Amino acid sequence: MALFENRYRTHDLGLLLLRVGIGFMFTVHGYPKLTGGPPVWAEIGGVMKLVGLNFAPVFWGFLAAFAEAIGGQLLAVGLFFRWTCALLLGTMIMATIMHLSKGDDFSGYSHALESAFLFLGLAFTGPGRFSLDQVLFPAPRRLY
């Protein structure tokens, strides 16, 4: 039956929809953090002390806000895709650690953990054909 055949001709369209949807949501979620300025960044970056990094909380907070807001946009258009996934993965790992350290139950940390798995999988999958990475940095053509 054609429905169950392993053709996946719509693979790149599926990646585009996933990238745009998740990218938009992370942009909307991260923009208030990014525009919150140093006081908000310091609060967000203070989470890094949970993994032994007690210095520069404003920098770490800015990096997390940047990863969500700007990284969401880069994810949506598929630009610098694997680097963006790596930044978002790190941010979601720290968010998971923060929720667990506060004693949150599964519903409190599940979104961050699910997002971490999503970004890890996307980093391995790549952005797909409909991405700026594909336009700007095409794979070399095979000669065989």
UniProtKB/TrEMBL annotation:
Q: What is the lineage of its organism?
A: Bacteria, Pseudomonadati, Bacteroidota, Cytophagia, Cytophagales
Q: Which family does it belong to?
A: Belongs to the DoxX family.
Matching entries from InterPro entries are given as: DoxX, DoxX-like_oxidoreductase
Q: Does the keyword Transmembrane apply?
A: yes
Q: Name the UniProt key words of this record, in alphabetical order.
A: Cell membrane, Membrane, Transmembrane, Transmembrane helix
Q: What is this protein called?
A: DoxX family protein
Q: Where in the cell is it found?
A: Cell membrane
**Membrane-spanning intervals of the chain:** 12-32, 44-67, 79-100, 112-132
Q: Which GO terms describe its cellular component?
A: plasma membrane
Just give the chief location class: membrane
Q: From what superkingdom does this record's organism come?
A: Bacteria
Provide the membrane topology annotation.
Multi-pass membrane protein
